[in-house]
Amino acid sequence: MTHDRNPPIPAISLSRLCLCSPLAARRVLDGGWWPRSRDPAIELPRLIADLNTHFGQPAIITRVALNLTAWDRTPHRVAAGDRIVSVGWFQALDADTIADADTIALTTTRRGRITLLVVPPQTTAPLAAIALAMAALGDHSAHPLAILAASGITTRDAIAASLARHPSFSPVRSSTTAPGETRLHPVP
Predict the structure, then answer these.
(1) Which residues are bridge partners to 183 per DSSP?
(2) β-strands 83-90, 61-67: how paired?
(3) How many Å is the Cα radius of gyration of the chain?
C-alpha cells in the first residue's frame, strides 16, 4: 500500500456570490459578487435570481445601483424572472468615491439596502475566491479597494480598464492629489 505524501489541494469554490451572515448588521459590505462579464443586462438577472432565492419571498430585489464607468452597457431596467427591476447609474468623480466602481447596491422590499463588492470579471478564480471570502467576513470597516488589493487584484488595472471603456473621463493629478492617487474628472 502506498501513501500519497502530497494530499490533494481542495478545489476553490466557483460560487460567484458570497454573503455575510447575518445581513442584519450595518457594515460597509454585505458580501461579494463575481460577475462573468461587464454586461449588466446578462449579469443582473442572474444575481437578482440568486439573491431572491437566498432571501425568499420576504425580500425581493426592487432596485439596483451601479457605477457607470464599471459596466459596458447602461440599461435602466432588467427583467428578472417575472419582474422588471429598475437600474440606477452613478459616476465616481474623485478618489473618495472611486470605491463605488467596485460595488453594487441593491434595494429589497424588506431588508433595505445590500452593498456587494464587485470582483472584476477577468479576475482568476483563486483571486476571486479570496476577494469574495474577504468581502463576506463582515468586517465593519472593510473598504472595497483594500479588499481587492489585499486579495491580489490590482485596482490600477481596474481603473485603466474603466477609462478605456469610458473615454469621457480622464485621470488627472492635481496639487491636492497624493502621488499614486488618481482622481477622475470629465473631459471638457
Answers:
(1) 172
(2) parallel
(3) 18
Relative to beta strand 61-67, strand 77-80 is unpaired
Say if strands 103-108 and 113-118 run parallel, antiparallel, or are unpaired.
antiparallel
25-81 pLDDT, tens digit per residue, is 667 898 999 999 999 999 999 999 888 888 776 568 999 999 988 899 999 999 988
Cα–Cα distance between 124 and 128 in angstroms, integer?
6
Number of C-alpha atoms within 13 angstroms, CB side, residue 25? 15
| Whole-structure pTM value | 0.72
Distance of alpha carbon 177 from its chain centroid, rounded? 25
| Nearest in space to 59 (alpha carbons), one of 10, 102, 24, 16 | 24
Q: 1 Cβ partners below 8 Å, 6+ apart? A: none
- Reduce the DSSP state of residue 19 to 3 states and report it: strand
Three-class SS state of 41 = helix
Q: Are 78 and 87 a contacting pair, CB within 8 Å?
A: yes
Handedness of CA 13, 15, 20, 22 (dihedral sign): negative
Reading the block at residue 113, the C-alpha cell is: 439596502
164 or 150: which leads in pLDDT: 150
Looking at 68-168, which runs of residues are DSSP E strands?
Answer: 77-80, 83-90, 103-108, 113-118
